[in-house]
Amino acid sequence: MRFIGRVPIAQLDHGAMVRLADPPFDALVAIVQEVPCAIEDACNHGGASLSEGERRGSCVSCPMHGYVFDLSSGQLVSPRGLCGPQRRLVARREGTDVVVLDPGPPVALLGG
């Protein structure tokens, strides 16, 4: 896993979302039901920064076209079927910070 960055938990209070620089797609970090979450920040539909979008409970809406993604899973909530999910990153608490890691590309299992 590759280290992306750290965000103080205090910066994520009250539903705040933080963008961590990790070009070319950066990372959006948030807390959902007391669990740290991170997904790629660039909307996979139009490339807009999701961290500049509106948070709606456990979801974020893209500021460009209004696509809504679940912050925990990266799944597209609406409109259904128009693009794939946002890539999930690893987010975990370490002391007073949330640490974000890139797990790397998915691994294909052979013979399975």
Q: What do these coordinates show?
A:
With 112 residues, this protein is mainly beta. The chain has one domain: Rieske [2Fe-2S] iron-sulphur domain (Rieske Iron-sulfur Protein, 3-layer Sandwich), CATH 2.102.10.10. The protein is 0% helix and 42% strand. The protein has a six-stranded antiparallel sheet, with no helix packed on it. The model has no long low-confidence stretch (mean pLDDT 93).
Blueprint of the fold:
Blueprint (H helix, E strand, L loop, with lengths): L1 E7 L9 E3 L6 E6 L2 E6 L13 E3 L2 E3 L6 E3 L5 E3 L9 E7 L2 E6 L10
Antiparallel strand pairs: 1-10, 2-3, 3-4, 4-9, 5-6, 6-7, 7-8, 9-10
User: Helix-strand pattern, N to C?
Assistant: EEEEEEEEEE
Query: Based on DSSP secondary structure assignment, what is the total number of beta strands?
Result: 10
Cross-sheet strand order for the largest sheet:
1-10-9-4-3-2
Mass-distribution shape: globular
Distance between the termini: 24 Å
Tell me the Rg in angstroms: 14 Å
Beta-strand percentage? 35-45%
